[in-house]
Request: fold
Amino acid sequence: MRTKGMRRSASALASGAVLAVLCGCTVQASGEEQRSPVRIELPSGTPSPKSAPPDDKPSAAPTREAPAVLWQRGDEGRDVRELQARLRQVAWLFDGPTGTYDELTEQAVRGFQGKRGLQKTGKTDEVTWQRLLKMTREPGKWDLYLMGGQPADAPDGRCLTGRVLCISKSSRTLRWMIDGRSVLTVPVRFGSQYTPTREGVFSVYWKSRHHVSTLYDSPMPYAMFFSGGQAVHYSSDFAATGYAGASHGCVNVADERAISEMFAQVRTGDKVVVHW
Reply:
């Protein structure tokens, strides 16, 4: 019986040893009490997790910096005016240019960005600006000031005394002046090359608040006639299309509030100077 028991124990030990080898483990002697009874043996050439090189560790995805913002809502100036003029060229903006980055400009930029797969922020960043530059031409002076807003040049010397409507063809502006002081300054539009506005020194000879042209059958409110049928008057067409159009020889004003105020102050006999 003892011999059979010893044989069974030996057989069990042998089976255990075979199983340990197949599993990649080695049974340790029972006298090594400070160690784990099982030691993992990795296949030859496999690095230990503790000794894995740093390059094998997963790295964070690189962050992309947002493009620099050039202009945004609330900004003003010549650059904003150029942005608006270029947006008009690609039919994303129909008002202005005004030189002020307003809600309409923000909406136009957002639409332009969305159409081209850019982030729709409504802010003009470097990427948006470069894309717009490639699609448009350099705006001219009267593209930038299509709807007015241009600075007036210095008044002609003949405008420095008395009561004068001082009209500059160079800056396309009208100054209402009294004794050398500018009371009101507004953008104005002139006749085309076929119907040019006459130049020289004239005087207001007739005022007509609700005048209608008998020649062109068009309204001429706040008309102040100074040379034949040519007058300074309000023009709804100038207010709507700016310098994209022209008059039949009259001096058009787009600001109705300003010309109504001027009309109330100007008297028959006041001087009119049209100059370059």
